[in-house]
Structures
1.
Amino acid sequence: MPEGREPYVPVKLVGGVAVYSEPENYPQEITHLPPWYAAVGVHPKHIQELTEDKFNELRTLLQSPGVSALGEIGLDYSVNSKFLREQENIFVKVLSLAVATKPIVLHLRGTFSDTLGIGVTARYHQLLRKNISPRQLLHVHCFTGDSTLVSDWLTEFPNTYFGYTALAHNFTEEQIIGLRSVPSDRILLETDSPYFAPRENSVNTPMYVGNTAEILARYLRIPVEQLLGLTLQNGMRLYRS
């Protein structure tokens, strides 16, 4: 238990997704078994770690029975703009490893002034159109967009799921409306541990997923238990596809 308080919405963890996205820390093998799943990729802030040897290692890990997704991968516009072209090159290269039967976990972060991620989403769609099938399973991690972006994703890529973290605590009205526009069978709960810890804690863990659920359930005006049940079904459907 990290320093801090007990979760104010206690949950029994029955599954989840562990993400390995720093090439220097790739495990030698991945042995997760359902309902615990694993994703392996390269975070856009760690692209310089993806040497050719690490790329081949990533390719091998993706073939492991314990790996159910490619990711997280993507674009992060919060970094110095001189790195953006390299991010795109690595993103496209890693997309070549995608397979139709495994979802792609997308890291999408706009500039500090673009909290919705409008600009980065537009560029995502340009790159994805050229490199994957429109029917590809997608998990947009840490989504913060409005209803227009939700519609854009589902129009371009109908098999998109939207993951929400405790960042939703600070959502604007347009972001709340965006959340309400997501079909109920496409919402996912995330903690992004060890990041986005509850305010009274220094470190996040999966045990705080109920706290995230409470925030979203309040916006959606549904019981927390209902949202937990929905998102459990959604996650199982996506990751065991």
2.
Amino acid sequence: MTQNTPLIGTALVDKVKELGNLSKEEKARACGYYTQTKNGIERVNMMKFLNALIDAEGIELDSTSEGIGRGGRSASYRISVQSNGNLLIGSAYTKKMGLESGDEFEITLGRKHIHLKQVGAFDEDEE
């Protein structure tokens, strides 16, 4: 099986733009994203082509886990009351706020809202 050296980076982007109205498969083939089997059958590798194009454009599709653990869930800014009546504010929120274990809050209940005020934090309203 033989394989061409595929284009990457700006060379790939420039070549795709140059190829204009060709189909995706023809563009992938022209940019080197194909293999040829022993029997002479040519196979276009669309997934590698599209991934290389995404990388060349600098588009970040993977979630950013900041190098810690496996990433986990991202904050959706919605929570539900659990079956035991608790509201759980997950680590995605506490990390985003820079909170640490042991930080304390005062809870103020409104009609349909909960306000948390960090104990010892400077309050702009108290000037």
3.
Amino acid sequence: MITYIKGDLFQVKSGVLGHACNYQGVWGGGIALLFKQKFPEAYRHYQQICKEQGENLVGRCILISENQYQIACLFTNDYSTKKQILKHTEDSLLDLKRQIPPHTVVNLPKINAGIFNVEWELTEKVLERVDEDYNVYEL
């Protein structure tokens, strides 16, 4: 089930914090830039993973821990079409689902809707299809 909550994503106390990203090793804009500022160690880890694995990350999720948080890097974009981004989103969410216990709360902004320019309603349908146990925070 998707639950919409307006507030600051970085104020949540439990669950996973997730965001969509690419494999270029740069959290340079949008919500990714806020993750970079809030979690500098996670950012360095992300950079290293991107350097090592590059485009093999597309459609995958990498979990990185920093402080009390688990950060889900959903590799949804390889600078392709909206249809491909949505497929990569589904694949990365399924990968995340395999890595976390059932019914874990996953806190997300409206992924793909910013810099990746994919209408939220399309990504929302992917979320609904993958699992009913996601909570989505709206920023």
